[in-house]
Amino acid sequence: MSRESVLLFGLGGIGGIYACILQLSGKCDVHVVARSNYNAVKEKGFKLISPKFGNHDGLKFAGVWKSTEEAAASGTKFSYVLCANKALLDAKPSLSDHLQPIITPSLTSIVLLQNGVGAEEPLHKSFPETTVISAVVWTGGKPLPTADGVEQFNREGLTIGVDYRKNGDKAEEDATLEKLVGWLKAGKGDCTVTEDIQSERWVKVIWNCCWNSLTTATRLKTGPFFESSSQALPLCYTVMREVEAVAKAKGLKIEDGTVDKLIKQCTDVAYPGLPSSMMADNFAGRPMEVEVILGTPVREGQRLGVPVPTLTAIYTIVKALDYGNQNAEAAKA
Ligand SMILES: NC(=O)C1=CN([C@@H]2O[C@H](COP(=O)(O)OP(=O)(O)OC[C@H]3O[C@@H](n4cnc5c(N)ncnc54)[C@H](OP(=O)(O)O)[C@@H]3O)[C@@H](O)[C@H]2O)C=CC1
Ligand SMILES: CC(C)(CO)C(=O)C(=O)O
């Protein structure tokens, strides 16, 4: 029997690692959509450097494609499409636009390997019959400067669950998740399965709302930010508590002590502390994940009548930084 196929959309730091984990599992045919690294990956194969998975050179994927259109034209039908591009809710074309050619109804499931909250809703709207699996990524990954592979650092792990669709068959959706998790585990990937993925995503966004936005706006890693003034650490508590209050108002399960734990996880890091992916995107002038990290929590706070004044101010500032990065003329004025 021929093996099922998966497609990795977004072969960067995280997508590269999960393409390798699935490739090493030997359970499925792995195809990738690569953009800036297409030529390197097509010619040389793919490299993984990892303390956990070991070093692998010249991994050959079943298909390397320039776009989802090209992947679809190959005639391959995909059981899963794993999306590890940056979660940019206002991007044109949207993620749904990219996925349109490769979703086969009642076969393909979409898997989000992305930070932030609110990315599932547009996918449910575009693909109401499709299972959407959502994962919180606890993995450190970065593309190699040679563009033909990735380096995995710190830990590797996913907290993963179905973002259940309306009128879907829960048992069927759970079985779809279970099969993917089996493949990831066969590749030595660490998966914690949850039936409440939204609570997990919101815990991570309490973290990202604070550290990503403040490191971006101040251009400082967390260590120098903490020593910059006596107001710095209290601001972190205020931001996190606002997002926590929104999550609780949504009826999500946020354990007591979550904010203290998330602050400690950061203050425990040796000087100079943590940078963030948003800070790196800002330095590089790339679009930032402003909407999924700050915009959705602000809008949900407003919708539910939860005061989010500090978060709104930070959202506005980071949104303006993002606007300046995307509008060179406005930034020069
Ligand atoms: N890296 C990390 O350690 C962590 C990342 N995350 C989250 O994981 C997600 C992925 O992040 P990360 O891997 O770091 O991001 P990267 O920027 O490293 O990778 C994103 C990839 O998506 C590709 N891409 C974007 N749009 C398209 C397109 N239209 N067609 C084809 N390829 C496309 C990019 O291609 P190109 O090179 O051409 O731009 C790039 O290779 C984000 O939500 C991030 O917040 C979460 C935890 C940790
Ligand atoms: C890697 C980590 C956890 C650091 O805050 C992150 O999610 C990010 O930078 O976006």
Automatic annotation (TrEMBL):
Query: Reaction catalysed by this chain?
Result: (R)-pantoate + NADP(+) = 2-dehydropantoate + NADPH + H(+)
A Gene Ontology term for the protein's cellular component: cytoplasm
Name the Enzyme Commission number(s) assigned to this protein.
Answer: 1.1.1.169
Q: Which Pfam families does the record cross-reference, listed alphabetically?
A: ApbA, ApbA_C
* A GO BP annotation: pantothenate biosynthetic process
Spell out the Gene3D superfamilies in the cross-references.
N-(1-d-carboxylethyl)-l-norvaline Dehydrogenase, domain 2 (1.10.1040.10), NAD(P)-binding Rossmann-like Domain (3.40.50.720)
Is NADP found in the keyword set? yes
One GO MF term attached to the UniProt entry: 2-dehydropantoate 2-reductase activity
Q: What keyword terms does UniProt attach to this protein? A: NADP, Oxidoreductase
Which residue numbers delimit the Ketopantoate reductase N-terminal domain?
7-142
The segment(s) forming the Ketopantoate reductase C-terminal domain are 196-321
Keyword Metal-binding annotated: no
Q: What class of enzyme is it?
A: oxidoreductase
| Function of the protein | Catalyzes the NADPH-dependent reduction of ketopantoate into pantoic acid.
What the record says about family reads: Belongs to the ketopantoate reductase family.
Q: Which PANTHER family match?
A: 2-DEHYDROPANTOATE 2-REDUCTASE-RELATED, PROBABLE 2-DEHYDROPANTOATE 2-REDUCTASE
Instruction: From the Swiss-Prot or TrEMBL record, give the protein name.
Output: 2-dehydropantoate 2-reductase
Ranked from the top, the taxonomy reads: Eukaryota, Fungi, Dikarya, Basidiomycota, Agaricomycotina
